[in-house]
Amino acid sequence: SGIVLVAINPYEQLPIYEQDVIYAYNGQNLGDMDPHIFAVAGEAYRQMARDEKNQSIIVSGESGAGKTVSAKYAMRFFATVGGSASETTIEAKVLASSPIMEAIGNAKTTRNDNSSRFGKYIEIGFDKRYHIIGANMRTYLLEKSRVVFQAADERNYHIFYQLCASSSLPEFKDLGLSK
C-alpha cells in the first residue's frame, strides 16, 4: 500500500519469504513489485549505498501482528544481499535473542502466548562494500506494571514462572521461591 507495508500474520509459513523471493526484490525500485518486507528492506539498503547515510525501518503493529518476524525477514534480506557469510549465522547472532532475554521479556497476552513485551532497536553495521560486519540490539521493557499486575487471561513475564518451576534446584535455594 504505497510506501507503507501492512503485515498480517497468517500464523503459518508461506513461500513468499524464500531465497528466490529475496533475489527477485533485490535491485528493484520500491513500487515496481508487489508490496513486501523485502521491498522496504531493499529500498533502505539502496538508499544507504547511494546516499551513504544511515537508514531506519520502523516495524509497528499490534501484539501478535508479526513485528519480530518481519524484522527477521528484513535481516535475512540484508544478510543475503549484503554478502554476509551465511544468512542463518547472521540471523542467529543478531535476532535469535538468548533464552534468558526471551524469558525476561516475553509474557502471555490475550492475543499471543509468547508475546515479546519489550521494544527492540537493532543497529546493523555495514562496511564500505555494504557487507554486514556486526549488529547491536538494545531492548527496553514496554510494561513494567506487568510485574505486579496482569489482566485476566494474561501472565507475568516467563522468567518468574521458570524461576518458580526451578525452585527445588540447589542454585535457587537462597531466593526463597516456592511453588
From TrEMBL:
Residue stretches making up the Myosin motor domain: 1-179
Binding site for ATP: G61, E62, S63, G64, A65, G66, K67, T68
GO cellular component: cytoplasm; membrane; myosin complex
Single GO MF descriptor: ATP binding
Presence of the UniProt keyword DNA-binding in the record: no
UniProt-listed InterPro entries: Kinesin_motor_dom_sf, Myosin_head_motor_dom-like, P-loop_NTPase
Keywords from the UniProt entry: Actin-binding, ATP-binding, Motor protein, Myosin, Nucleotide-binding
Entry keyword annotation includes Nucleotide-binding: yes
Domain of life: Eukaryota
GO BP term, example: actin filament organization
Pfam families membership: Myosin_head (PF00063)
Family label: Belongs to the TRAFAC class myosin-kinesin ATPase superfamily. Myosin family.
PANTHER family referenced in this protein's UniProt entry, alphabetically: MYOSIN, UNCONVENTIONAL MYOSIN-VB
Protein name according to UniProt: MYO5B protein
Source organism (scientific name): Aegithalos caudatus (Long-tailed tit)
Gene: Myo5b_1
